[in-house]
Write a structure and sequence with these properties.
It is built from eight helices and no strands. The protein is mostly helical. It has a single domain, classed as LemA-like domain (de novo design (two linked rop proteins), Up-down Bundle). It is rod-shaped, with a radius of gyration of 31 Å.
Length: 223
């Protein structure tokens, strides 16, 4: 074998080793980025599970002061069941709907001083708000990792090998457009206790009689 052949073979071996090294680096990069996504997804699941466990306690406390229609309780129960199951987008949708429902409950609670003063309600509210903050934090981290992972799969040279290695893009934890609208609280869903209804409605007749007297007193001057 002459010197030229040896050089060609040596160059070929170096090229092959470089290509193999690049492929290994790309593959390991995919694995590392996917693992970060999966770890962040697990952290989201931990917080969703925590919220899942807190909701029944909140409903039990609230039911002692408010009487919600069965449809509302059924909806919350169904949302609670789906919050830790399904795809990431399913979890995101259920989580956002739960957030809207909880905001409504907390808004309605403003009309119930005894409920607001309940230590159990305060504790549950604080825990749920803390969980909401943690979900928002881990969601941001998760979406950052998903963006990094998906970019690696869809840009060159990663896109050449991603399908061959069976790496698939991950779903973002997104907020549907309709969930970004301001919360609308429907007070018709709440049957307030008669005592509270009476006390809340009392000022209206008094104000009406006051206006009537004022109008009667002004009537002669107009004549």
């Amino acid at each position: 074998m002459d010197l030229l052949s040896e050089i060609v073979i040596g160059v070929f071996i170096v090229v092959v080793l470089v290509i193999v090294g690049i492929i290994i680096a790309i593959y390991n990069g995919f694995v590392s980025k996917r693992n970060r996504v999966q770890d962040a997804s697990a952290q989201i699941d931990v917080q969703l599970k925590r919220r899942y466990d807190l909701i029944p306690n909140l409903v039990n406390v609230v039911k002692g002061y408010m009487k919600y229609e069965k449809g509302v309780l059924t909806q919350i129960t169904q949302l609670r069941s789906s919050i830790v199951t399904g795809s990431m987008q399913d979890k995101a949708t259920a989580n956002n709907q739960i957030s809207q429902a909880l905001k409504s409950i907390f808004a309605v609670a403003e009309n119930y001083p005894d409920l607001k003063a309940s230590q159990n309600f305060k504790d549950l509210q604080d825990q749920l708000m803390d969980t909401e903050d943690k979900i928002a934090f881990v969601r941001t981290s998760y979406n950052d990792y998903v963006l990094d992972y998906n970019n690696a799969l869809q840009t060159f040279p990663g896109n050449v090998f991603a399908a061959r290695f069976n790496f698939k893009p991950a779903d973002f934890f997104q907020t549907p457009a309709e969930q970004k609208q301001p919360v609308k609280v429907d007070f018709d869903d709440v049957n307030a206790p008669s005592a509270q209804v009476g006390s809340a409605a009392a000022p209206a007749p008094a104000q009406k009689r006051s206006r009537q007297k004022k109008q009667q007193g002004q009537a002669p001057k107009q004549g």
